[in-house]
Amino acid sequence: MIRIIASFALAAVILLPDLPSAYQTVDVVDGASLTGKVVFKGKAPEPEKILINKNKEVCGTGYRKKGEVRVSASGGLMDVVVYLEGIKKGKPLSKPAGGYVLDQKNCSFLPYVQVIPRRSKLVVLNSDPVLHNVHTYELIGRVKRTMFNFAQPVQGSKITKTIRPRRGKVVKIECDAHNWMLGWIYVLDHPYFSVVGEDGTFKIDGIPPGTYKVKAWHPILGIKEGKASVSAKGTARLSFEFAK
């Protein structure tokens, strides 16, 4: 196993992204793997706490946390997307068996973070017996642009939308009816990414041998960068460390 120490560059929470480029599918012979862990050092910042003041029979009582930085008992940072930056060709894109789905359940967006390719179909489901209003924004630097905004009052209803950002990679999702509800989509047009597990670990496989810039994105804490070289059938390890 090759161990690689990342050099980090903490950027702003929302960066001006690169313009999308074409990705070419090829046969990957002797593909390599990249594994590692994303950790958080120190005390996690306190999230915003919002009082639940409506639909308490579904949403519960008390407060909800918004913009939370979730850290496991072992220090692993959750809700991070780790990906290869700028890769032009490799294994084919694949989507989940059930497609891309955003569910509204117990007055939360599930999943909280997911990766979706540009121009893909997203099925928005309302599993709650209350009205939600789904409002999505493409974030480009400090600018945000509404992508779609619709009410969904009927439990069990499904609405399909196309993820079509102009230039951004980050899509923020809010509910205009419940101001604590928050979700994120990260837009990548290649399959070389991993949404970390609850312990902060990740694995990316089927990588063509070479040297790559690797990024770790967290919706609240921003981006860190590293570099990894992978050899044919080899496994490299890369660790990322975030702090408050």
Description:
The chain is mainly beta and 244 residues long. Helices cover 2% and strands 50% of the residues. It is built from one helix and 21 strands. It has one helix spanning 56-59, and strands at residues 2-4, 24-25, 32-41, 48-51, 63-66, 81-85, 89-90, 100-105, 108-110, 113-116, 121-126, 132-140, 143-152, 158-162, 170-175, 182-187, 193-195, 201-207, 210-218, 222-230, 235-243. The chain has a five-stranded mixed β-sheet with strand order 10-16-15-12-13, with no helix packed on it. A four-stranded mixed β-sheet has the order 1-21-3-18, with no helix packed on it. The longest helix has 4 residues, at 56-59. The two termini are 31 Å apart. Residues 1-20 have low confidence and may be disordered.
